[in-house]
């Protein structure tokens, strides 16, 4: 993946986090599913819409389609990640060859004009491309829908070292007196936990290593810190724009949120990091037009005229832009998926000896953020906020 493209996608992730992670509810989103679609639209846009899309993308519109193709191709090479794109148009919509030739390989289909029939076909595509994680295409279809452009991402990974899980009633914090699914494990690698200091204060990050070249980072801020600020600081850390200090170099005491460091008796002469977190299962729906300026779609969604002369001679405007996403974090691994769709309408046993060893304990038992990150490129594949843990019922 090109570094410039990775940086552009991660910048969009940070800007989206500031608006999507409010703390009122849990959320999950993936800019890696939105950015390529915006890039393809930018290549075919004209006038103010083209300039707004380029600004949202963080690169010139003329270079966007090529970058989108390369990004989607690279995503397809990530183990454990399914990636797909699709384009459906009405039979009488004539696409410009220069634009359609730049589209990445993927599904090409025809819209019948029957919203129910087309909806079932698009839902089937979403379910198939995400292995059933997302069952419906997040698009509004009506008789004026002329074109649908969609992407699907589905990530599945297993932990290198799984957690133990059990039901537990928490004793303190906002989740007190709830029986939740608690995950725990220990390791001698203290620096799986780091602490960084961002504009809004300290954050603690835990790296949970996956088996596919993708890792999940849990991010905990100080109580009262806005979720968007916690996530943006976390993104700066995982993309190495902000330095962080590993637990092996941190002072004893409570050097970061949810983190305690001291010493303990042990039967082996190695340090120990004890991890305790909660499982979570989050689904979220995003209407991108609610934040049209963030995604460069403010002008492009005005239906009084057309905005995509490079796509088709027919005047087209964005009538719908949505993303459905989910994330699951459990004892064995992590799953995340997102389908993004944009529809264009007509414009308009112990030994006897013991040792004193360094011991760190980290707990994620109050609302926190998470980031799924491709280890090599540092591309953030999914981000979100956990407002409610996975509950345990009788």
Explain this structure.
By secondary structure, the chain is α+β, with helices and mostly antiparallel strands. It has 2 domains: 3-157 and 282-346, Antithrombin, Chain I, domain 2 (2-Layer Sandwich), CATH 3.30.497; 159-279 and 353-386, Alpha-1-antitrypsin, domain 1 (Roll), CATH 2.30.39. The protein is built from 7 helices and 19 strands. The strands form 3 sheets. Strands 1-19-18-9-8-7-10 form a 7-stranded antiparallel β-sheet. A 6-stranded mixed β-sheet has the order 3-2-4-16-15-14, with helices on both faces. A 6-stranded mixed β-sheet has the order 5-6-13-17-12-11, with no helix packed on it. The longest helix is centred in the N-terminal third of the chain and has 18 residues, at 3-20. The mean pLDDT is 94.
H/E topology pattern: HEHHHEHEHEEEEEEHEEEEEEEEEE
CATH superfamily of the largest domain: Antithrombin, subunit I, domain 2
Report the mean per-residue pLDDT as an integer. 94
CATH architecture of the largest domain: 2-Layer Sandwich
What class, by secondary structure content? alpha+beta
Largest sheet: 7 strands, antiparallel
Q: Count of DSSP E strands?
A: 19
Provide the low-confidence segments as ranges: none
| Count of discrete alpha- or pi-helical segments spanning 4 or more residues | 7
Distance between the termini: 47 Å
Q: Into which percentage range does the β-strand content fall?
A: 35-45%
Envelope shape: elongated
Q: Biggest sheet: strands side by side, in what order? A: 1-19-18-9-8-7-10
**CATH top level label of the largest domain:** Alpha Beta
Q: Tally the structural domains.
A: 2
CATH topology annotation of the largest domain: Antithrombin, Chain I, domain 2
Helix content: 10-25%
Radius of gyration: 23 Å
């Amino acid at each position: 993946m090109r570094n410039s493209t990775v940086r552009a996608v991660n910048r969009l992730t940070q800007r989206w986090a500031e608006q999507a992670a409010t703390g009122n509810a849990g959320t999950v989103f993936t800019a890696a599913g939105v950015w390529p679609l915006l890039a393809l639209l930018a290549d075919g846009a004209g006038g103010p819409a083209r300039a707004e899309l380029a600004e949202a993308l963080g690169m010139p519109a003329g270079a966007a389609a090529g970058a989108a193709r390369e990004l989607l191709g690279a995503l397809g090479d990530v183990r454990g990640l399914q990636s797909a794109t699709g384009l459906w148009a009405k039979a009488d919509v004539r696409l410009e060859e220069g634009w359609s030739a730049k589209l990445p390989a993927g599904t090409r289909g025809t819209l019948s004009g029957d919203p129910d029939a087309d909806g079932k076909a698009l839902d089937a595509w979403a379910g198939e491309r995400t292995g059933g994680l997302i069952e419906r295409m997040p698009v509004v279809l009506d008789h004026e829908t002329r074109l649908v452009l969609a992407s699907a991402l589905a990530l599945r990974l297993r932990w290198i070292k799984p957690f133990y899980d059990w039901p537990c009633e928490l004793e303190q914090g906002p989740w007190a007196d709830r029986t939740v699914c608690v995950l725990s494990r220990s390791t001698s690698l203290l620096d799986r936990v780091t602490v960084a200091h961002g504009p809004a204060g300290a954050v603690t990050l835990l790296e949970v290593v996956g088996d596919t070249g993708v890792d999940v980072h849990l991010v905990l801020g100080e109580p009262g810190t806005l979720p968007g600020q916690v996530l943006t600081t976390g993104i700066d850390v995982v993309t190495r724009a902000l330095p962080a200090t590993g637990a092996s170099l941190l002072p004893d005491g409570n050097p970061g949120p949810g983190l305690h460091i001291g010493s303990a008796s042990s039967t082996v002469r190695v340090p120990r990091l004890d991890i305790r977190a909660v499982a979570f299962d989050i689904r979220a729906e995003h209407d991108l037009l609610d934040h049209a300026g963030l995604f460069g779609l403010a002008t492009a969604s005005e239906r009084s005229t057309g905005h995509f002369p490079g796509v088709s001679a027919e005047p087209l405007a964005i009538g719908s832009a949505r993303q459905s996403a989910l994330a699951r974090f459990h004892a064995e691994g992590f799953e995340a998926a997102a389908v993004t769709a944009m529809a264009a309408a007509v414009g308009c046993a112990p030994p006897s000896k013991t040792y004193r060893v360094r011991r760190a304990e980290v707990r994620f038992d109050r609302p926190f953020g998470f980031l799924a990150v491709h280890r090599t490129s540092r591309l953030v594949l999914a981000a979100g906020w956990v407002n409610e843990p996975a509950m345990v019922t009788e």
